[in-house]
Design a protein that fits this description.
This protein is mainly alpha-helical and 400 residues long. The protein has three domains: 55 residues, Ubiquitin-like (UB roll) (Roll), CATH 3.10.20; 95 residues, Receptor-associated Protein, CATH 1.20.81.30; 242 residues, Receptor-associated Protein (Up-down Bundle). Helix content is 77%, strand content 5%. The protein has 16 helices and three strands. Strands 2-1-3 form a three-stranded antiparallel sheet. A hairpin with a 5-residue loop joins β1 and β2. α3 crosses α4.
Length: 400
């Protein structure tokens, strides 16, 4: 929410402007961290409209990738952390990201570490991101850390986008197919059906079925639409409950063909996360904990949480993973080799590269399969619909 403020700076000058915060107290605290003496803070005019516009603001993953590269470059140039975030705040065109960077700079000026300052903005900087930065601060290699983060986020963004494209295309074609069928059944077929009924001829069974469907959609379509809306709302509510979310994540892994794509995607994310964190010197227990939090699927998150408890009790990671059928034997074997040779991060990086390549191949094969299948489905559906009414019309015209 935006608050309008009036304050006095360290030189006695008057400052006015707006600050984004969750409450009036948080706005005052943010201004005080900037070294300002607050005179007045009140909600900015606009009320609900302003809140809605603020809600629509977001920071994309692509922007975080670019930001990470810029931070790494500035650290390589020996620019101080405070100066880095203030400079980047001036350069960014995203208002939300600008406010976040200014708040990070204020926290740094107040004595916080970079990781602590970034952790206050979990919608932009994930647990994985924050822990990587914390490791970079401890080792004094922040420039390398931010380059690692940029590379990792870039890979994950490309991989996720490719997987989404494979799902969006068939969804779009199916929606178009349903829209065309409904349009024909509610507007075109009823008019043609009237002509066929007035002809008095005996209609084929498939034509009767089509006319029956048309009558149903015309008379009860609004009720069907309401039922679908209610069902969609219930499904949305169910998916956002902890139990529903876990069941939906499990269901995704068993969808024919798409389940294979999802499994490879999560395995690639697991291997890449773990490789990056272990290579940065983060302890295995913390690496597993963070990877479980950001992997994006409750089934694999549960597996990693169980493996985490086993590792805490002294078991090897490969032994803990071997108890779960969702983890392929190749991963278990490769992790065991990495543990025995002390090169786990390199092994996990190899696995990440392998599964990322598998995701790309699976997506490409899926798209190659879906395109002709969807075209055939759309053509057959519309063809059957037209044939069911055109053939009787042709019979009427030839009989006359």
């Amino acid at each position: 929410m935006l608050f309008r403020y009036t304050a006095i700076d360290a030189k006695g000058g008057k400052q006015e402007g707006t600050v984004d915060a969750v409450s009036q107290e948080a706005a005052i605290a943010a201004l005080q961290r900037r070294g300002l003496m607050v005179v007045e803070v009140e909600p900015a005019e606009g009320g609900i409209l302003t809140m809605n516009l603020t809600f629509l603001e977001r920071v994309s993953q692509a922007e975080v990738v670019v930001l990470s590269r810029q931070i790494a470059t500035l650290f390589e140039a020996q620019v101080s952390a405070l100066r880095v975030f203030r400079l980047l705040a001036l350069e960014t065109e995203n208002p939300l990201l600008q406010r976040i960077l200014l708040e990070v700079a204020d926290d740094l000026q107040g004595g916080s570490s970079i990781a602590e300052a970034l952790a206050k903005h979990p919608t932009v900087f994930s647990d994985f991101y924050v822990n990587m930065v914390r490791a970079g601060e401890e080792t004094g290699k922040l420039d390398e850390t931010f380059n690692y983060l940029a590379d990792y986020l870039d890979r994950m963004y490309e991989l996720t986008s490719k997987a989404k494209s494979a799902l969006l295309y068939p969804a779009f074609v199916i929606v178009v197919f349903i829209a065309v069928m409904v349009l024909m059944l509610t507007y075109v077929i009823p008019r043609i059906g009237t002509i066929l009924e007035e002809s008095g001829q005996e209609l084929p069974i498939y034509t009767k079925i089509v006319l029956g469907l048309s009558s149903f959609f015309s008379n009860f379509g609004i009720f069907l639409l309401l039922a679908l809306a209610v069902g969609g709302g219930v499904f949305w509510w169910w998916v956002h409950t902890p139990e529903g979310w876990a069941q939906f994540d499990a269901l995704k892994l068993h969808i024919p063909y798409f389940g294979t794509l999802f499994r490879k995607l999560y395995l690639a994310r697991f291997a890449d996360n773990l490789a990056t964190m272990v290579a940065s010197g983060i302890p295995m227990v913390r690496s597993l904990e963070v990877t479980a939090a950001v992997i994006g699927n409750e089934v694999y998150a549960g597996i990693l949480r169980k493996a985490l408890e086993e590792v805490k009790n002294g078991r090897a990671l490969s032994e803990a993973l071997n108890e779960h059928n969702e983890i392929p034997g190749i991963i278990v074997g490769m992790v065991r080799v990495g543990e025995e040779t002390g090169r786990l991060e390199r092994i996990m990086k190899t696995l990440a590269t392998f599964y990322e390549r598998e995701v790309r191949h699976t997506v490409d094969a899926l798209i190659d399969l879906i395109e002709p299948a969807m075209i055939v489905l759309l053509g057959v559906g519309v063809g059957v619909l037209l044939a069911s009414v055109l053939i009787p019309i042709y019979n009427v015209s030839t009989a006359g």
